[in-house]
Amino acid sequence: MAWVLKMDEAIESGLVHDFDSSLSGIGQELGSGAYSMSDVLALPIFKQEDSNLPQEDESKHPPFQYVLYAATSPAVKLHDETLTYLNQGQSYEVRMLDNRKIGDLPEISGKMVKSIVRVVFHDRRLQYTEHQQLEGWKWNRPGDRLLDLDIPMSVGIIDPRTNPAQLNTIEFLWDPAKRTSAFIQVHCISTEFTPRKHGGEKGVPFRIQIDTFKQNETGEYTDHLHSASCQIKVFKPKGADRKQKTDREKMEKRTPQEKEKYQPSYETTILTECSPWPDNAYVNSSPSTTPAFAPGQVGAYSVPDSNSSSPNHQGEGTPQFAVEQLCPAATIQEAQQWLHKNRFSTYARLFSNFSGSDLLKLTRDDLVQICGSADGIRLFNALKARSVRPRLTIYVCQENQRARNVSQLVGSQDSENGEGDSRAIYVYHAIYLEELTTAELSKKIATIFSISQNQINQVYRQGPTGIHVLVSDQMVHNLQDESCFVISTVKAENTEGYHVILK
User: Fold this and answer.
1) At what angle do helices 364-371 and 373-383 cross, to 10 degrees?
2) Dmax of the chain from CA atoms?
């Protein structure tokens, strides 16, 4: 019995010793700081639960990446968007990179994609008036573009296109599997859209945005794949370099604690992902639901351009522009619409209570004092608008239409009087020319007869003995004003186009 008690005491003392040592071990681990939550999460039970959570690798991965080879500004705070300075008219490389993982978007492997590059406003306030802002720029810089593609320097760019109606947009195709670099030139500077202030001007920021599309079932590039953009400011030549140097010198003067609040300057600018450019925006006024890839697209602009047949007459299919003088009986709402249509949206709020008669009563000096010299004179001239006579006016009639009218008239006269009547009504269209070029003539003919300008290969004039003389710019320049022509077409050989003959 005594032996049994001794055994019980030994066992009990051993259990107490083991329990004390285990407690001391736990205390040492907690006290020494060796406890790690990762060790706990590594337990099988937590691994099983964690497997249901999305992994980092499964997060959204952009299929493409665009890199602008221009340094970012060092004077940008940590959580702000990067800002890049560009020189006006200088070519900058934008590298188009395929960023897909293996198995991503297999439907575009071995195929082309289309990218649309735009220069747009960064400020929300200017985005609302972008239509008027860009139209004003176009009016003051006739023949210039806001954005151009430097084709000789570009690599891998296929079928580049610039639309004359979309001055801030370029389009091209490219193969993601091959090296692709688009060299772009921005011709508008930031201060052109800033009202002059005392002590100088502060330029507005722009955005470079790239939208990429793949082909749909019908072969059109309308399926959106990716969009990215970056913030830029554009200076006169060499101005971006001086601004970058100034920002760098300012940052060097700051204390180390202040420098920590700012981003470092990087040699290149990576465009960050963004929403696709809206289809109904100013720069893409195509009636289709996605950006149209066609150079002949007509934009819905407010000022007359070469698409219109005359200052007073709009060709078929051309947006209507109110060139007529503001009527004194116009209501306040009609006066507001007139101001918007004629690029005076900036002053619409200022004249929010003015009717047509109120505006017309203002003198030139009144408008200059209210709107400044440039806009005041422009508004005065618009209110007192006179039609500008075109340099050359010609009248054209389609030959098959004329023949049909003659046959109908002769048939009706024969049935009524028993004999023919030489009287006939031929409907002619007026063409008003300003540039006096063959290209302008072809464009106006195509507009009147609702065909594409690309379908017209050559324009000929029928000369003596029925010969066909090729119409040149010099011939158009020497046409007699208000000449009349009958137009016939001849199918061109080996092409789908036609030759137009003026008789």
Assistant:
1) 140
2) 155
